Amino acid sequence: MAIPLTAPAAATGATTAATAADTAPGPPPFLAWPGWAHLRHAGWLSLANALWFTAVFHGADALTARRSFRVPVHLAAELRIPFVPAMTVAYMSIYLLFVLAPFVLRTRQELRAAVATLAVITLAGGIGFLLFPAEVAFPPPPESELGIWAGLYHFAADLSLTYNLLPSLHVALSVACVAMFSPRASPKGSVALWAWAALIAASTVLIHEHHILDVVTGWLLAVACVRAVYRTRTAAPPGATPQRGGAVMATALGCDRSTHRGPAPP
């Protein structure tokens, strides 16, 4: 599915959604209002990406359902990992990352690169699901253990479908968002973002939706795609340097980038 990534710039020649916060002296804020035009553009890109994700994710699950072959992706010791239904909240917080995207990535170049990265991750995940058809080895949790989290847990479980395990797209998409956001954050903000990604990754195992191998492969897939797609499409002009301390954490995790974060040059 083709997602628009290099559409012509607006009449002014700029491809950014520059805001007063981005053009003010000093480093730009992590979050800022990007303008309605940017939000509309983000909406169309999100719709295209959601349709792509639905086709790949549901298609792979449907194809696996027709096959009897399964690949075990768990270790026996993992079956002793406790079920923690409250972690469903962390699991579902991935959608907040998606909502934040246009308020963090306030240029069209960054936003298109982000959508392209997520689309490539989805495609790679779909290929993995077909090559390694698997099922969760954890037994279904008894209703008595769900408590007040029953409704949210069942909703999350329904969204996850049945067979799409390796790599975990839940982990991959979360880590990719954090890797793309963190260079815009302060050092403390970057640490908080990566802690958020780790919490989401842990939640996939603690609510028994994934196994450890799924998490590891999902994390590595995200790092690889951010490097190969996002960093390539948002490469900085010669001589540009990061303006936010969050790039230090991103560098340590192999997901750094140096991009121009102000308005587009004339």
**Helicity, as a percent range:** 55-70%
For this structure, the quaternary state is single chain
Number of H- or I-type helical stretches: 11
In percent terms, what proportion of residues is strand? under 5%
Mean pLDDT: 86
Q: How many distinct folded domains?
A: 1
The largest sheet, given as strand count, sense and whether it forms a barrel, is:
none
Low-confidence stretches: 1-17, 242-266
Shape descriptor reads globular
| Structural Rg | 19 Å
- Structural class of the secondary structure composition? mainly alpha
SSE series: HHHHHHHHHHH
Total E-strand runs:
0
State the distance separating the first and last CA atoms: 32 Å
The gist of it:
Helix content is 57%, strand content 0%. It is mainly alpha-helical and 266 residues long.
Could you explain how this protein is built, in words?
This protein has 266 residues and is mainly α. The protein has one domain (33-252). The chain has eleven helices and no strands. The chain has helices at 20-23, 36-65, 88-92, 94-104, 108-131, 143-146, 150-160, 169-181, 187-206, 212-233, 246-252. Helix 9 (187-206) packs across helix 11 (246-252). It is globular and about 55 Å long. The chain starts with 19 loop residues before the first helix and ends in a 14-residue tail after the last helix.
